[in-house]
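Run log, item B.
One chain of 109 residues. Sequence copied directly from the ordering sheet:
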Amino acid sequence: MPRLTARFWVDAYLARLRMYDIPAYVVAHGDDTGGAVLVKLATLDGKAVLFQRSFDLTSGTRVWVELASGPERDVDAAVNRQREFDPDLWVIEVEDRAGRHLLDQEGLS
């Protein structure tokens, strides 16, 4: 099965968020083909959660795992550390007071 490019996945994710009227922005444009993707969920109350796509070794499927959470400034610091380590990294910022990120929906893992 061919693997989707990072750019294709990001564009599809942003389109899905727009369908639910959830604002999202590309904060860092990574490598179009193989860049990893981080999703920062800002709940607009000074807090945020950072998700990274990973592999579940038991099932062999892709899953989203929480990389950091807490005060938004701490989550931003975690994003900056990851970007220093991986310059090809995509960073998507989702803003939703209800905490919706849609990463648990079918087709987004």
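Observations after the first pass:
- The CA atoms of residues 47 and 72 lie 5 Å apart.
- The mean pLDDT is 92.
Flagged for discussion on Thursday.
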